[in-house]
Write a structure and sequence with these properties.
This protein folds into five domains: 62 residues, no CATH class; 83 residues, no CATH class; 156 residues, no CATH class; 106 residues, no CATH class; 117 residues, no CATH class. The protein is 22% helix and 32% strand. The longest helix has 23 residues. The protein starts with a helix and ends with a strand. It holds the Pfam family T6SS_TssF.
């Protein structure tokens, strides 16, 4: 129950008392029997009835003002469930390998590996890794920036040499202060002239890698951070994760090592990354800037909810993940609802959500008779708790209330640890997390502090704005000098933060024109989009990363036989910052 509910209650109570005064003046005989006077009521039972009626009216009034959130939430749960689920705590963690136990061929820590934090209020928060990480007996021994060259020294251990190094790629996380790492991100992806592998202490000619050997990480579907439904537009995931946690995109992968002749380099080499232009204001680069063996981590885990005993007198049931510590868990999503009946023989049924788009067997959903489920997310009624609670109800296809035939219903959930991760201590040299699986890891540290939970607005008015996604396409987004594009970006700033608002306002102008490009042996017609940015609005963030996210986002809007090509300009540089190749979805068209 929110704090604003008290205002509704007091307004209704005041209105009823005013009406009571008018009633007492107009019908004194009846009012006398009720002991109702213009300014007071002597009968405590009548007074309690008035207060109870005011409470009911306040609830109805608030629901009307919220534009019936049951309707908007049901629509969003089908089309854009990511817009109703709370965004859990996110972090970037680094594994420190126990070098002597890491095999020469590497050790894979798979995606989804569970990490446990140190105990806080008796609860150990549970995170899961978002990227697979291969541990190598390798470290970054040194890194520096001088004379337009970024040098990264890689050293192998356990008597392993680069002649035996079996990986084609190495993944780095750019660690450090945000204003420096975002600048470094642009230099490595948009200002590289050539890359060389240089032997250390040996007179061996450098081995060249292509300047495109460095690729950004985090944009592909298999690199998504949060669970994302298949029916939702993939481009929205890019925006959601960027505004929630831009650090997830600060991963870079260097490839082409397996084809490079590094047999005589021994166990140490320098990666010399030559830049096209001066970097402008200098920024610090050290060995800690390039983190190996790192991955984003998300505070999500599977959980079986407390069983729900079906009672025919109840319209909805609160879903409780765990009775022992309800304040330490929040429901992210309901993944499955199943029921079991005891008589005459145990029967298990799986219930489907009412607004499911397709049946599991591929048939028409209208052909199904039976009971379906609906969920409603509401603000917690506990004082001081900013979390949400989830309620489950059952109905038939006509949306009329219906009771499942089962006596007990169980739910499989995806949960988070509510607001606890945002208060976790971090920076312990011995490690901030314990890895659940056996692995040659000495310590697991958070290089980015776990974020606070972000929650979308639950009011119907805010959710109707999210539903407006349905009316947009890639051309309507670009019309009116990008006003619709800015409005869409604001939808994903759940907290209306000044930093995010500043980035959105950093879009100075948006224009587009229809163009024709040669794609292989064919001529293809598409759209060239030009966006001008004011870099002063991106202090502490990265205009290049922001433009890269928009480039991939616009590419997802393209129809099958077309393309989009983004041209990013800077008001300060007075030049084109980057012109991306034509794109159709995940594919770059060359």
């Amino acid at each position: 129950m929110g704090d604003d509910f008290l205002d509704y209650y007091e307004k209704e109570l005041s209105f009823i008392r005013e009406m009571g005064s008018e009633f007492a003046r107009k019908y004194p005989g009846i009012a006398g029997r009720l002991l109702l006077e213009p300014d007071r009521c002597e009968d405590p039972h009548v007074e309690r009835l008035i207060e109870a009626f005011a409470l009911i009216c306040a609830r109805m009034h608030k629901k009307l003002d919220d534009d019936f959130p049951e309707i908007t939430q049901s629509l969003l749960n089908v089309l854009y469930p990511h817009c109703t689920n709370p965004i859990p705590s996110l972090s970037v963690v680094r594994f420190s390998p126990l070098m002597k136990n890491v095999p020469d061929t590497g050790y894979l820590v798979p995606k989804g590996t569970t990490l446990f934090s140190r105990a806080l209020d008796g609860v150990r928060c549970r995170f899961a890794t978002a990227y697979p990480v291969t541990l190598w007996p390798m470290e970054v021994a040194h890194a520096a920036l001088a004379d337009q060259v970024i040098t990264i020294r890689l050293k192998l251990h356990n008597k392993v040499t680069f002649a035996r190094f079996s990986s084609d790629s190495i993944r780095f996380y750019l660690n450090g202060q945000r204003q420096h790492t975002f600048q470094l991100y642009e230099q490595l992806l948009n200002n590289v002239s050539r890359i060389e592998c240089v032997a250390v202490g040996k007179k061996i000619p450098p081995v060249a890698l292509t300047k495109n050997s460095i690729r950004p990480v985090g944009f592909d579907e298999q690199e998504m951070l949060l669970p994302f439904p298949r029916q939702s537009f993939k481009g929205y995931r890019l925006l959601l994760e960027y505004f929630a946690f831009p650090e997830k995109y600060l991963f870079l992968e260097l490839s082409g090592l397996s084809s490079a002749p590094l047999g005589d380099f021994g166990d140490t080499l320098d990666l010399a990354i030559h830049l096209d232009h001066p970097t402008g204001p200098s920024f610090p680069v050290s060995a800690d800037t390039f983190c190996l063996h790192a991955t984003p981590a998300v505070n999500l885990f599977s959980k079986i909810a407390e069983p729900i005993r079906i009672e025919n007198r109840r319209a909805e049931y609160r879903v409780v993940p765990e009775l022992r510590s309800p304040e330490a868990m929040e429901i992210f999503s309901i993944d499955q609802v199943s029921g079991m009946s005891d008589a005459p023989a145990p029967v298990t049924r799986v219930y489907r959500p009412l607004y499911e788009i397709t049946r599991p067997d591929g048939g028409s959903i209208g052909d199904v008779e039976g009971v379906w489920w609906l969920m409603q997310r509401k603000a917690s009624g506990t004082a001081g708790d900013r979390g949400t609670e989830v309620f489950l109800s059952f109905c038939d296809l006509a949306s009329d209330p219906a009771d499942p035939p089962d006596e007990t219903v169980t739910l499989r959930l995806t949960c988070s640890n509510r607001d606890l991760p945002g208060a976790l201590p971090w920076g312990d040299p011995a490690g901030d997390f314990d890895i659940e699986a056996a692995a040659p890891v000495e310590a697991t540290n958070a290089v980015v502090r776990p974020t606070a939970v972000r929650r979308p607005a639950l009011s119907g008015a805010s959710q109707w704005r999210l539903i407006s996604h349905l009316s947009l396409n890639h051309l309507s987004l670009l019309e009116a000098d990008g006003a619709a594009l800015k409005d869409m970006l604001r939808l994903y700033d759940f907290e209306d933060s000044p930093a995010t608002r500043q980035q959105t306002n950093g879009i100075v102008s948006v224009s587009f024109r229809h163009v024709t490009r040669r794609i292989g042996a064919l001529i293809c017609r598409g759209v060239e989009v030009t966006i001008e940015f004011d870099e002063r609005q991106f202090v502490g963030s990265g205009v290049y990363l922001f433009a890269s996210v928009l480039e991939r986002f616009l590419g997802e809007y393209v129809s099958l036989n077309s393309f989009v090509q983004l041209v990013a300009k800077s008001s300060q540089r007075k030049e084109v910052m980057k012109k991306w190749p034509p794109r159709n979805g995940d594919r770059v068209l060359l």
